[in-house]
Amino acid sequence: MSDGAGTVAGAAPRRLSARAYFTWVAVVTGAVFATFAIFRPSLAHAVRDTLGLANPPPQTPHSFYAVRVAPILEDHCASCHGARRQKAKLRLNSLAAVLRGGKHGPVVIPGKTADSTLAQRISLPAGSDLVMPPSSQPPLSVDDATVIKLWIGSGASGTQPVTDFANAPRPVARVVIADVDPRALAAARAPVAGALRSLQERFPGVIDYESRSSARLELRASLLGSAFGDQELSAFLPVQDYIVWVDLSGTAIGEASASAIGAMHSLHALRMMNVGVGPAMTAALATLRQQGVRVYVDQANVETVDGER
Question: For labelling alongside 29, which of 20, 44, 101, 251 has CA 20 to 30 A away?
């Protein structure tokens, strides 16, 4: 049967040609990649690296970056932002990675030191919770921080020669420290290795060694939010003497955890933002402060803990 226009009733719908189909796929793929590039730049860069589409910035072996900047980043940053570990999806072990940034975006804005997160973080006072390297690690010297900021301010180049930086602090002979003896490190970690593995299976991504050469631990319970409470914290009792940094912000920790927190005798820093602080916890935090622990609580609680704002 056919209608007045001569079209056969029930005819199969017209199919896309191969060219139109692949054009459509390319457009959709491009749109998806553009979305990732905007909202997840680190993932977009990872995809480009994997596909070999990345265009690495030019670099020479005798540039100011290679001679002065890269060694500082390797010594002070690579343990947390290197090949084996990438906090905040940030790597600082190559020029391309430094310029790429992490999950929160670029950390270096070439030519704009004041707007570069890396320059901001290394300039914070030692007591700041955001200072980099973290307070549990050896700090950057004033000269090292100046070197990085001068490099960023001049354009963050991988080819600009050392001679262009006549005003840079004079280099100090680097003390090369041999890699940690694997047997010595294993021995230092042995007392908590088994308990740590069990905790990592139960709480993935929440607790780990502070660096690849340390036996000390960092606990980031804030990642679990209100799902982490007094009962969960008690599970970390077997490793409490190795914990040096704790973030309990936004968790359901209460008064029942005051004694457990007070018993973390190796603690260097404790964050408890957006957490209720009662009398028992107030006393525990005050004791920690007296012991030199850096305690960060909501402004409303600061007055209660140390009597001043």
Answer: 101
